[in-house]
Every structure is written in C-alpha cells, then in structure tokens.
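Annex B, item 7. Sequence and structure tokens for protein A, then protein B.
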Amino acid sequence: MVDSPATQRTPVERAVVSERWLALGALGLVAAACWAWIVPMANDMYGDMTGASAWMMTASWDGTHLALLFAMWTAMMAGMMLPSAAPTLLVYGMVARRDDAAAAPLRIHLFAGGYLVMWTAFSAVATAVQWAFTSTGVLSPMMEIQAPAVAGALLVVAGLYQLTPLKRACLSACQSPAAFLVKHWRAGGAGAFRLGIVHGWYCLGCCWALMLLLFAGGVMKLTVIAGLAAFLLVEKLMPPMAQGGRLSGALLVAFGLYMAAGL
C-alpha cells in the first residue's frame, strides 16, 4: 500500500524510522548472542556438564576460570539489561539525529558502549562476590546458596532496597528517557559515551539489589535469569508514577522472611 501525499514520510522521517530499526536490530543481535551462550550453558549445568558448562567443573579458581566466570556474568548482564535500555537508546537516537544526522549512528553505539561499561564493572564485582561465596561455602558448586536463611536474607535486602527513595529516584530516570536526556545531555561522541555511562549508573542503582536474586535462586538457573530479566523490563516500562517497586519490595521481604525462618 502506497502512502497518500498527506501521509507520506519525509526523507528525514524515513531515516529516523530506518535508524530506529537498525538500533533495535543491533541491540537484538548483541542480546541474542549473549543468550545463545547463557542458555546452553544453563541447560548443560543441570545436565551432564560435558558441554558449554564443562569449564565450571574445576576445584581450582585459576586465572582462566575467573576470566570465564567474568565473561559469563558480562554476557548475562548484557543479555538481561540491553532490552530494558532500548527505550532510552531510541529516544537518544532521535535527538542525536536532529543534532547531527551524519554522526548519529556512531553516537548511538557509543551510548550503548558506555551503558555496557557500567554493567561490565558490575560483572567484575559479581565475579568477586561469587568467588567469596564459593570459597566460604555459602555457594555450592552448582552456584546455589546452600543455607535457606542466607537466601532469605538476600531476598530481604533486595526487597528493602526496593522501598528506598534511592531506588525510586534511579527507576524514575530509567522510566523517563526524555527527562533523563534533557537533564544530562552532552553533545558529541564523548558526550554520547558519557551519557551511556550515566544512564548505566542510574540503571545499576535501580537494579543491583535485584541481582541478588540470582544468588538466592541459583546463578545459572534459566528460570531465575529469564524471570528476572522480564521483571526488570516490565518495571522500567511502567509509568513513572506507578508504585510497582513498593509492591515487589514488600513481597520480596515477606518471602525472604518466610525462607529465613525455614517455613
């Protein structure tokens, strides 16, 4: 069907739409590549552990094992968090095209790169936490918390953080891409990278405590990973005035206390 003259898109509008799909496609490819490694590894871990997760079967945490564990966390964070960053990235792309159409594609990638820098840093911290939990016997070789009381305590911490003003402030920045860009806008490629880092910082402030659920439920349990990724996406797509964090926080605290009590 051919658009009528009144509804035909201008060249600029067609470029914006095309760029939007390119940005979504790039995000989708990166996220799909991450899930393509995580899903077989998670399935193999609860199978015979001779495939994608075979490297985990070692008693020594040498440099190679730590590097692979860090890569696993990085892929998992990218696969989980990139989809939730899509709204802000798309709004940034539209603004960047109006500012400098020729440089917009590069600046979009720089923004995404800055965002991933923050989650890569978080992955390094998560790797260190997992190493500490494993070396002290808190975490089993199957990457699961061995004591229900500890798992319950992690849920309580995550739930309490959901109720804090800091959580709401960070979530608001993630739920309102236009307002975020107006407040933090920087021009140029360096500005795009900085914006990505700032957005990643807010996103990290919004979601870090919920990542404790990976330890509480099983770091490599696919249902936990997929369920948490879906929840984070829905939480960020909710209207800024919605109080979903309070409900989820109360539920997490209640369930955490239930687990800690051994009921």
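Protein B:
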Amino acid sequence: MDIQLAFRVLWRFKGFVIPGLLLAFVLAFLSMVRVQSGSPHFSYKTQPQYESVTTLFVTTHWFPWGSLNLQAGTSDPNAPRGQVDTGVLRDFATLYVQLAASDPVIKAMAKQGPLTGSVSAFPILATDSSTLPLIGLSAIATTPQASLSLARRHLAAFQAWLSRNQRQAGTSPDNRIVLENVSAPQPGHLVQGRKKTKPIMIFLAMSLAVCGLAFLLENLRPRPRYVAEHPAGHLPDAQTQRPAA
C-alpha cells in the first residue's frame, strides 16, 4: 500500500476525517472516565483492585502439633493429656471457609464502618490437593491501605464471632478451636489494574470506520478522462484502405 497516497486521500477528506478522529477520542475517553458536576470533575469508572491475604491456622490450645502423638495439654498441668484428631481440625477448616464470610461476620464488620471492598475465604491445600487445617482470608479494595484495613477488620470480626459463640455454647477453654495467625494481614498487592481494553477498542473501531469511509468516497468519485493533445489543424485522419499496386 502506498502510504503517501493514503495520507493524500485522508487529507483530501479532512473535513470529516479530523472530526471523526476527535469523536473517536472523546468516546474512548468517556468510556473510561465519568464526568460529574462536582469536584473533581472527572473520575475513573473502574478502579484498580488490591488484595490483602491472611492465613489462619485452625488448631487448639497447647499446640498439639509439637507432640509426636498429637497430644494437647490443658490449663491444669495435672490433668491427663488428650490426643487431637487432625481429621476433625481439617473438617473444621473446610467449615470455617464457609463461615468466615457469613452474614453474622459481615454484619459485625459493618458495625465498625462502611465496607469499602469485598471479603472472602478460601481453603489452603497440600501439594496432593488434600485439605490442610489452614484457611485464607482475602480482602479486596481500591487501595493497598484500604485492603489492609478491611483485612484487619475481617480477621477481628471472624475471631470475635467464633469466641462469642464458644462462650455462649459453654465450651470450656481447653476444648475450643483456636484461629491462630500464620500470616498477618499485609498491605494489599495489585491484582487488577484499570482496564484500558474497552477505550482502545472504541478508538480503533471509530478510527478504522472513518478512514474506511474516506477511502470508499475516494473510490466512488468520478475520475476525469485525459485526451491526448495534438497541434491545431493536425488531427489524425481516419486510416484509408489503399488498393494494392
């Protein structure tokens, strides 16, 4: 394709090519930015997403994981030590994944302030995909600090909910499930930036449509026919047939 010829065609129809490209830019801009009357006058329609992750250990008091036969002590040193069933703790971890983001926990968080983000829980699996007595908490917000604050509130609300229900049920302290921090909430890391795919696609589609219309109009224009020039009075006569001698 002749680049110079293409630019000449676009320049020939600049009366609508330039406004068309400006319109494409405006539409792409408006697909990404929200215009408002207050201050600031412009704001992004989509915000980046930052995630703060917390890891919790589903265990009991007196750390049975330090004993070869998984025996846990009690607050009474003279009391017999009992053996902990690790399968039960793994089952509790699976259950707590569902309870960590339940309505009572979310309501307890809402009492501390607005929920400017989302929280969830997920299981942590071993290399063979078996369940571990570990659960992860995820807090997602639009800034690293906001995700960290949300993660701390989620952790505190979940642990408080569990302790409150254990007290109300009359569960003895030596027989309670404990949620220990393995990895405390940290400032969030970026998991999703602002999406620019939509404005780019809008600008490219509009630009291609405008340029394509310019070339279409160029092909539809009537082309002048050029006639060879001859000196005045010397127009060629029609060829005549002469008989052979």
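Comment on protein B: The CA atoms of residues 164 and 170 lie 10 Å apart.
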